[in-house]
Amino acid sequence: MKREFAVNELIKQALIQLMTKKSHDDITIVELTNKAGVGRASFYRYYKSVDDVFEDIFSNIEIEIEKEIKEAVARGDSNMGKALLEKYFLGLKENSKFILNIIPENRLYFLSFLEKKYENQYRNKQGDMKKRYKAIVNTCIVSGIATEWIISNFKDDPQDLAEFTFNAFLR
Fold first, then answer.
1. Does residue 156 register a pLDDT over 70?
2. Is 9 exposed, middle or buried (CB count within 10 Å of its CB: 0-12, 13-18, 19+)?
3. Radius of gyration over alpha carbons of the chain, in Å?
4. Is the pLDDT of residue 125 over 70?
5. Residue-wise over 11-43: b if at least 16 C-beta within 10 A, else e?
6. How far apart are CA 148 and CA 143, in angstroms?
7. What is the pLDDT of residue 39?
8. Please, which residues have CB within 8 angstroms of residue 85's CB and are 6 or more apart in sequence?
9. How many angstroms separate the first and last alpha carbons of the chain?
10. What's residue 31's pLDDT?
11. Mean pLDDT of all residues in the chain?
């Protein structure tokens, strides 16, 4: 288990380093394994593609955000919608070093990955058409605000963004 963790971490760190210099689309598995100092067989033991590694990195960020959200739920925050948005923005800010260090083209990849992931969750749910589309619109609102916030180097306060985003949902 320790070796598995080490190999995974080496691969993820190598991808992060490569993403500071070149586009995600231009990174090859050979280049990634060379940078990580692991064999291609080791890579394929854990991943199928460079996208899988990126998703693994994102999953770790997402787990931290979800942990924060669960803690908010456990505390019984009175305004859960705003609290959830605040946790989301705080989670992004906590990972700003990763997000800001990758080249701008890869930041857009990161954000589109995030948006597609959440949109797909809503598309796969059956139910009222209006609720489904409202959920997709809300996802786009959050994604758009997060994109601008990242582009502005996280200059705005996460609590203010959560308040603004929550109010945008109510319109």
1. yes
2. exposed
3. 18
4. no
5. bbebbbebbeeeebeebebeebbebbebeeebb
6. 9
7. 94
8. 142, 161, 162, 165, 166
9. 49
10. 96
11. 79
Residue 86 to residue 97: CA distance in whole angstroms: 19
pLDDT tens digits, residue range 21-32? 888 888 999 999
Sequence-ordered list of residues with C-beta below 8 angstroms from that of 5, at least 6 positions apart, any chain:
none
Residue 151 CA: distances (Å) to CA of 20, 76, 107: 16, 33, 9
Mean pLDDT of 119-129: 62
- Both structure tokens of 26: 């231009």
**What is the pLDDT averaged over residues 33-60?**
89
Rounded Cα distance, 83 and 77, in Å? 7
CA 161 from chain center: how many Å?
17
| Rounded distance between C-alpha atoms, residue 34 and residue 101, angstroms | 21
24 DSSP 8-state letter: G
Local structure of residue 95 (DSSP, 8 states): T
Cβ-contact 133, 48 below 8 angstroms: no
